[in-house]
Specification:
Blueprint: H1 2-12, E1 23-25, E2 34-37, H2 42-45, H3 49-63, E3 67-73, E4 76-81, H4 83-95, E5 108-112, H5 124-142, E6 146-153, H6 158-170, H7 176-179, H8 183-207, H9 212-218, H10 220-233, H11 237-261, E7 267-270, H12 271-274, H13 279-287, E8 291-293, E9 299-301, E10 311-314, H14 322-336, E11 340-348, H15 352-364, E12 373-378, E13 381-382, H16 398-416, H17 424-444, E14 452-453, H18 456-459, H19 467-483, H20 498-508, H21 510-520, H22 523-543, H23 552-575
Parallel strand pairs: 5-6, 5-11, 6-7, 11-12, 13-14
Antiparallel strand pairs: 1-2, 2-4, 3-4, 8-9, 9-10
Helix pairs in contact: 4-20, 6-8, 6-10, 8-9, 8-11, 16-17, 19-23, 20-22, 20-23, 21-22, 22-23
The protein binds one RNA strand of 77 nucleotides through helix 15, strand 14, helix 21 and helix 22.
Length: 584
RNA sequence: GGCCCCGUGGCGCAACUGAAUAGCGCAUCAGAUUUCGGCUCUGACGGUUACAGGUUUGAAUCCUGUCGGGGUCACCA
């Protein structure tokens, strides 16, 4: 319809540019269905806003039979469109399989998320990261792109050696089996133990007259960790064995956590494999004179043109830094997936600068894919009690949090739900669906860039803009459809209620919303859309009776509408990684 | 200090590329219902979009400056 109006306008004003045609949904408080903003057209119409609106309105009404009327308020031309048009739209939607899904774009995107260290368990911040990354991957798929979900596991370096050293000293051979602890929790425990011992030793050295800096370097346990890193790098069999063992514990633990979260990966990269990458690329860069070498032998990238400080890529002794690895890993990935269009890194906003630099360096090195790389940057998650600080033990553990929301969901479902006929297993599955759905929705509905407040109680509230509220509406549509359903299409000549037309109009917007969400990598757009749809449906549900309608045609419309809303909610929630229950 | 991000009713968040009277949910208050100050329903209150200029027919949105919050400026990952 927009297109049709646009074309007619261009017949009227051949010189009219596309970007001047602004057609939007008419606000609820005005009469009409679509609104043309006439302000941009004034230069061409050479009339005042009211006259222009009236003139164009008359023209459009004459030219397009579907337009049954219009009114002009200030500079806004509100067009009334016959309800048969909306019924046709609904029929088109009903007949489209997987409505909202776009056809194959031929593009492939690599989406990186999670990327944890292997020395401590996942926490609330990782949840935001994982849910965002997973959801963006789903949104890109819905836009017809191929997606490779990946992560890089930071499994080497001094921080890993710290847990290893502490385990050797304090562990007494403790394993996940012997302790009953989840593998990642066990390793995390020794990471904390290291820190504790380290502090004790520093305090001792301070009392013996050392400065703080000296003490930090001289603490025996710290030296032990450094020695272990050297041994690891020189492939000392015993060290590598311990490293492998402890990492395997962590992976077992992570696997459980990821499984609960409902996220997965297509390809894993390990830092222990990739940390050597990038050096040869730096050499090439030197030859191409994109990079330069200082007297001490260190290699740098000149970023003065970008108004940033030069970036080190190789130390004087030839060893690499984080940036070197990231350059190497990026190139490696594009080798592994040659058809890749672009790559999306889901990483916290404290690394904004790092990624800006990374993309510039890749570009300078001649990798054109750099233009298609982006940093999906997100803000911190704060708690009502303040910021999470690992040192102060105020970190919210991912497993603990997920189990706690599942418990809360249980309490709510038992009080309110329709659980009869479900066995224990099904009930537990439902609690998981509701609890995690609430948590995911809560973390995804906020603009990623912003740091956000996390209030656990609000996340599984059954009212308001929450996951469970949407799930509840879905369950209700399922209950209705179990009692009765309809097939086929609706008659176009139906005197539909306003609330029904509102739903259809909202459904019509779905493809555009999916496109926007893909372009902006924004799950928040999806959650907003879904909430709006659910609200529209609820007001419809309350104002009409679905089963007591005498008019058969109308009842069919209502059932088909219910069906389509149900399907759409299921679809958009899936883009957020959220399951919807049949009953709750 | 330089650079980046953010600042929207008491709280938490919306507003797609600038558009009509800035939305929503909590909380609050008032009514209804209630064995119940707790559950449910209805309604109301609540905002100069941090501040000051500017661009525009039109600014929460764009530009400049100020203030406030966060981040970052490593031969750490």
């Amino acid at each position: 319809m927009q297109e049709l109006i646009g074309n007619k306008l261009k017949e009227l004003y051949p010189e009219l540019a596309d970007n001047l045609i602004q057609i939007q949904k008419t606000r609820a408080e005005f009469e009409g269905d679509m609104t043309l903003v006439v302000f941009p057209l004034l230069r061409i119409t050479k009339k005042n806003p009211e006259e222009s609106g009236a003139f164009i309105g008359e023209f459009l009404q004459k030219e397009i039979p579907m337009i049954t009327g219009f009114n002009v308020v200030k500079g806004f031309l509100n067009l009334e469109i016959d309800s048969s048009y909306w019924m046709e739209q609904l029929n088109a939607i009903l007949e489209t399989k997987n409505y909202g899904l776009r056809s194959n774009s031929g593009k492939t995107y690599i989406v990186e998320y999670s990327s944890p260290n292997t020395n401590k368990p996942l926490h609330l911040g990782h949840l935001r990261n994982n849910f965002l990354g997973y959801s963006v991957a789903e949104i890109l798929k819905a836009n017809g792109h191929e997606v490779v979900k990946t992560q890089i596991i930071n499994d080497r370096g001094i921080h890993i050696c710290k847990s290893m050293v502490a385990w050797e000293i304090f562990g007494n051979g403790e394993t996940p089996d012997s302790s009953g602890l989840k593998g990642d929790k066990l390793v995390g425990k020794y990471y904390v133990a290291f820190d504790k011992q380290y502090k004790v030793e520093i305090a001792q050295l301070l009392t013996s007259g050392k400065t703080k800096e000296e003490a930090e370097k001289l603490a025996p346990i710290f030296i032990a960790a450094q020695e272990m890193l050297l041994k690891w790098e020189s492939n000392d069999p015993q060290t590598v064995e311990l490293w492998k063992t402890m990492n395997s514990w962590v992976y077992e633990g992570f696997a459980i956590t990821y499984n609960t979260m409902g996220v997965d990966f297509d390809k894993l990269y390990y830092e222990s494999d990739t940390y050597i990458l990038g050096k040869d690329i730096v050499e090439e860069g030197l030859e191409k004179k994109v990079l330069y070498k200082k007297e001490d032998g260190s290699v740098w990238c000149d970023l003065s043109a970008e108004k940033m400080d030069d970036k080190l890529l190789l130390r004087g002794d030839g060893t690499s830094v984080y940036m070197t690895q990231d350059v190497g890993t990026a190139v490696e990935r594009f080798k592994d997936y040659p058809n890749t269009t672009g790559m999306i890194y889901t990483v916290g906003n404290e690394q904004d600068h790092h990624f800006k630099v990374l993309f510039v360096i890749l570009k300078k090195l001649g990798y054109s894919f750099a233009d298609e790389c982006s940093h999906l940057s997100y803000g911190m998650v704060e708690l009502p009690s303040g910021k999470m600080k690992s040192r102060e033990g105020t970190v919210v553990d991912a497993d603990d949090l997920m189990h706690s929301v599942m418990d809360d969901a249980k309490a709510i479902a038992e009080e309110r739900g329709h659980l009869e006929g479900m066995n224990e297993e099904q009930k537990n599955e439902l609690y998981k669906t509701i609890g995690l759905g609430g948590l995911k929705y809560y973390l995804l509905k906020v603009d990623p860039r912003k740091s956000m407040m996390f209030n656990p109680e609000e996340s599984i509230d059954l009212n308001g803009n929450t996951g469970p509220f949407i799930q509840y509406t879905y369950a209700r549509t399922q209950s209705i459809l179990r009692k009765q359903s309809a097939t086929g299409t609706v008659e176009s000549q139906i005197d539909a209620e306003k609330s029904e037309l509102d739903i259809i109009k909202h459904l019509v917007d779905l493809p555009a919303m999916i496109a926007d969400a893909g372009k902006n990598q924004s799950p928040a757009l999806v959650s907003n859309y879904t909430y709006e749809l659910v609200k529209l449906y609820n007001s419809f549900y309350q104002s009409v009776s679905i089963f007591k309608e005498e008019d058969e045609k109308k009842q069919k419309l209502r059932l088909l509408l219910t069906q389509q809303v149900s399907e759409t909610v299921e679809f958009t929630m899936r883009l957020l990684g959220i399951k919807v229950p049949e009953k709750m």
